[in-house]
Design a protein that fits this description.
Distance between the termini: 142 Å
Shape: elongated
Helix content: 25-40%
Length: about 475
């Protein structure tokens, strides 16, 4: 037989080939028995005994050594000892094998090689800056810890109060916005053009006729909401005779004079009940009556111009006798200059050199009535002139050129209690003092300056009396002192 030697191969001293064993009458012998009793050397070749593995199975039989068995998987990965492994690539190779006699045998061998992992393409991703990163580090968007927001569960009445004060504070801006909105619609141009001319030329703000005054508008319940926001109260020191005419001097100006509007621009505080028979007119800058739409609103609320012509016409026309009997005007004496000194827990009145209203009273025969509003200066915080002198100089320059100034103020907001342009909810008590009797000068006669100083002194003393008498009742800080300046 090709590939085998002619001499029989002996295993354990006996022939191993079945044909020879049969000729020699030897029983068949398995290869397992031959391997178990094999000698150390067979035909000069060292025989290594197989390794013995001892183990216990379910039937107390020997078992093969433990090894990692893997189940057949359809997936392309293998799991060895619980770890996932990538499959290997197989290669079929031909090996040259020879037996002991040198005969060549041909065999194939299946070998495995590690399959290289596919590499992902290396692409460079360039990103832009992250939006909002600078805002996160900015101090402007960080809410200070001392800002207190209004709770959601607030009575509906308080929300209505805030709405009314907000509407009054922004009234000029709201009316201007409505006017320019209508101007953007060509359909309204035929109406707006003649109306604008009428606003510029109308004498109603200073005619003294009060023909646009609406008692219904002044008595609407919404003004009670406005006054109860602070809350505001009106007090009188003495009744006023309806057969006389009066000039109310309101102090201090504050920032927006909310107390003057609540007490004398509406009927929310009951002016007609406290002073029956007196028709009071609150005066404001003449420029406010050149603002479209707002001008008609102000006239309907009974406001008029603070010009000299307007004051004289109101106090000399109409009334019970047609010469101003029973009429009154309210002037915020300190004006825009006094608004720059409106600081909480202070009371600086610009009054020393303000004598024009005294001369007006002498010419028209109107009595002077001092009015002091406790809490008017506490409604807003303002930038002080001492800490910002340059800002104060610019404000004074604006006042000199335009007749009014813009205080840099702040208070609370609509939804918080610390930052905004809404006034604080501080009690506002408007006290009307006793009237200072004035003797009217003859028509065309020059006013005596000494008499002016005398009436002015009486007016200041009555104002100081109101301060001393009512300051403790209305819980004014004991360190606050009334100061008459300029």
């Amino acid at each position: 037989m090709a590939g085998f030697s002619e001499s029989p191969t002996l295993v354990n001293g006996e022939p191993s080939q079945p044909v020879i064993r049969e000729k020699e009458n030897l029983p068949p012998k398995s290869y397992a028995d031959a391997a178990e009793h094999a000698p150390d050397k067979v035909n000069g070749i060292e025989n290594v005994p197989p390794a013995q593995f001892i183990g216990k199975g379910e039937a107390e039989t020997q078992r093969s050594p433990p090894f990692s068995q893997t189940r057949h998987r359809k997936s392309g990965s293998l799991r060895v000892n619980g770890a996932s492994k990538q499959p290997k690539a197989s290669n079929l190779t031909v090996e040259d094998i020879r037996d002991r006699d040198g005969e060549q045998l041909t065999a194939t061998k299946l070998t495995f090689t590690d399959q290289p992992k596919p590499q992902k393409p290396q692409t460079e991703l360039v990103s832009g800056r992250r939006a909002g990163a600078r805002w996160e580090r900015s101090q402007f968007v960080k809410i200070p810890s001392d800002i207190h927001f209004a709770p959601i569960s607030i009575p509906f009445q308080r929300r209505l109060q805030t709405l009314m004060v907000l509407a009054h504070t922004l009234s000029i801006a709201l009316f201007l916005t409505a006017f320019f909105l209508l101007c953007s619609i060509p359909l309204f141009w035929p109406l707006l053009f003649p109306y604008t001319i009428y606003v510029l030329l109308s004498p109603a703000p200073h005619s003294g006729e009060l023909s646009h005054r609406s008692s219904l508008l002044r008595s609407l319940p919404i003004w009670s909401l406005f006054a109860s926001y602070f809350p505001a109260r009106l007090h009188r020191s003495a009744p006023l005779e309806p057969t006389r005419k009066y000039i109310f001097g309101y102090h201090p100006h504050g920032i927006i004079s909310h107390g003057a509007f609540a007490a004398f621009g509406t009927e929310a505080l009951g002016f007609s009940q406290l002073f029956p028979g007196i028709t009071n007119t609150l005066l404001t800058l003449d420029t406010n009556f050149r603002i479209p739409f707002y001008r008609d609103y102000a006239l309907a609320m009974g406001l008029a111009s603070v010009s000299r012509e307007s004051c004289e016409n109101i106090l000399s026309k109409g009334g019970a006798n047609g010469e101003g009997m029973g009429r009154a005007i309210t002037i915020v004496v300190g004006g825009a200059r006094e608004s720059l000194d409106a600081q909480p827990r202070s009371l600086r009145l610009v009054l020393k050199r303000r004598k024009g209203f005294v001369k007006l009273a002498i010419r028209t025969g109107a009595d002077l009535v001092p009015v002091l509003a406790f809490g008017e200066n506490d409604l807003y915080d303002q930038v002080t002139s001492d800490s910002h002198p340059f800002v104060h100089k610019m404000q004074m320059l604006v006042k000199k050129c335009m007749g009014f100034t813009i205080p840099l103020f702040h208070a609370r907001g609509v939804f918080n209690y610390d930052v905004g342009l809404m006034p604080y909810r501080k009690p506002l008590n408007v006290v009307v003092g006793r009237p200072v009797k004035v003797v009217q000068s003859k028509r065309g006669e020059l006013v005596d300056e000494r008499y002016v100083d005398e009436i002015h002194g009486l007016y200041v003393r009555e104002l100081e009396r109101i301060w001393e008498e009512w300051r403790e009742r209305f819980e004014v800080d004991g360190r606050v002192e009334l100061r008459i300046v300029e």
